[in-house]
Amino acid sequence: MTTEFDDLAQNGAQNEDELCRDIQMSLPDAFWALDYVERYKFGRFNKDFALAEDGRAYLFGVVEVPLLEEAGSFTWGVWAEVPREFHDAYVERFQSELAEGMKAEGTLANEVPSYDDAFGARLEIVLHADRRPSIRILEGSLAKAQAEGLTPEAHRALDEVLFPPEDEFDEAFDDIDGMAGVPNEGRA
Fold first, then answer.
1. Residue 91, Cβ neighbours under 10 Å: how many?
2. Residue 33 carries which DSSP code?
3. According to the model, what pLDDT value does residue 166 have?
4. How far apart are CA 186 and CA 91, in angstroms?
5. What phi and psi values does residue 126 have, to the nearest 5 degrees?
6. What are the φ and ψ backbone dihedral angles of 58, each rounded to 5 degrees?
7. Residue 104 pLDDT level (bands cut at 50, 70, 90)
8. Which residues, at least 6 apart from 143, have a Cβ–Cβ distance to it below 8 Å?
């Protein structure tokens, strides 16, 4: 996967028993896949808008997947590739009542963990005056999860994908008593 998660510790669970409810992608994958200098040459971006030199336009928005059997939702902060005209209209109306309710179709511009068919999925994005745009995925497994909700078991499995348990090999190095690189098993 080419996407970075923003502030995993901040967006992740607050303690070991709590499951993550929010992951945000830093950039559209088209930007994220590039190195530092190439990214600079490729286009401009901030936390809400991205515009590639080749004319592709992106908006940051929120996909909410309802949690079943508990209040709230799992929130994916993702990037939508949208028509340039829509992007530009939102830039002009950003955080104003004029943006409220504006809609467009686009495609999902990020890979999403556990939803292998999410990248490139068709979507509808709705703008708001006082919060980030909302995104409804129109096809694929993420669309199904958004429509049907996330069971507690599926939420737990997603959390394990996002934050896998430490490798058993790494655990062998936890208490090495100053012997760098030497596992502690078998030492007196």
1. 14
2. T
3. 73
4. 63
5. -120, 130
6. -135, 145
7. very high
8. 121, 136, 137
Closest CA to 76 of 25, 144, 18, 151: 25
Residue 125 near residue 95, CB atoms below 8 Å: no
Q: What is d(CA 118, CA 133) in angstroms, rounded to the nearest whole number?
A: 18
Residue type, 170: D
The C-alpha R_g of the chain, in whole angstroms, comes to 20
Amino acid making up residue 47: K
Q: 99 forms bridges with which residues in the sheet?
A: none
Q: What is the mean pLDDT of the chain?
A: 85
3-class DSSP state of 175: coil
Q: What would the pLDDT profile of 33-60 be if each residue is shown by its tens digit? A: 999 999 999 999 999 999 999 999 999 9
Q: Is the dihedral of CA 161, 46, 135, 30 positive or negative?
A: negative
Distant-in-sequence, close-in-space partners of 144: CB < 8 Å, separation ≥ 6: none
- What gap in Å lies between CA 148 and CA 170, rounded to an integer? 38
Whether the full predicted model's pTM is greater than 0.70, yes or no, is: yes
First to last CA, the chain: 42
pLDDT confidence tier of residue 137, bands split at 50, 70 and 90? very high
